Amino acid sequence: MYVWLSTVKATLAGAECPDCGRFSDRVHDRYQRRLKDLPLAEQGVVIRLVVRRFVCGAADCPRRVFAEPFSRLAARYAR
């Protein structure tokens, strides 16, 4: 059985903090998510999603680090 593997990453420079709404382009780190999609021609499909975590620079924001959203591609915690 073959598996189709595709790597996806964002092209935007940064993201907005979900708590305070401030834009940040300061990358804290990166991690990978593996999403399994429906089979294509009876072959498995795996999407490797490279997610960046950003530092929120607002001093009064309770959230220090947040991950960029991929809400159009996958729900939160989706596998």
Can you walk through the features of this model?
- There is one protein chain.
- The protein is elongated, with a radius of gyration of 15 Å.
- The chain has no helices and six strands.
- With about 80 residues, the chain is an all-beta fold.
- The strands form two sheets. Strands 1, 4, 5 and 6 form a four-stranded mixed β-sheet that branches.
- It has strands at about 5-10, 15, 25, 25-40, 45-55, 65.
- The two termini are about 20 Å apart.
> Rg to the nearest angstrom?
15 Å
Helices and strands, in N-to-C order? EEEEEE
Tell me the β content. Answer: over 45%
Q: End-to-end span in angstroms? A: 20 Å
Please bin the fraction of helical residues.
Answer: under 10%
Q: Report the strand count.
A: 6
| Main β sheet profile | 4 strands, mixed
Based on secondary structure, the structural category is: mainly beta
Mean pLDDT: 85
Poorly predicted runs: none
Detail the topology: elements first, then pairings:
Blueprint (H helix, E strand, L loop, with lengths): L2 E7 L5 E2 L6 E2 L2 E14 L2 E13 L9 E3 L12
Parallel strand pairs: 1-5
Antiparallel strand pairs: 2-3, 4-5, 5-6
Task: Name its key features.
about 80 residues, mainly beta, 4-stranded mixed β-sheet, two-stranded antiparallel sheet, elongated
Short summary of the structure?
The chain has no helices and 6 strands.
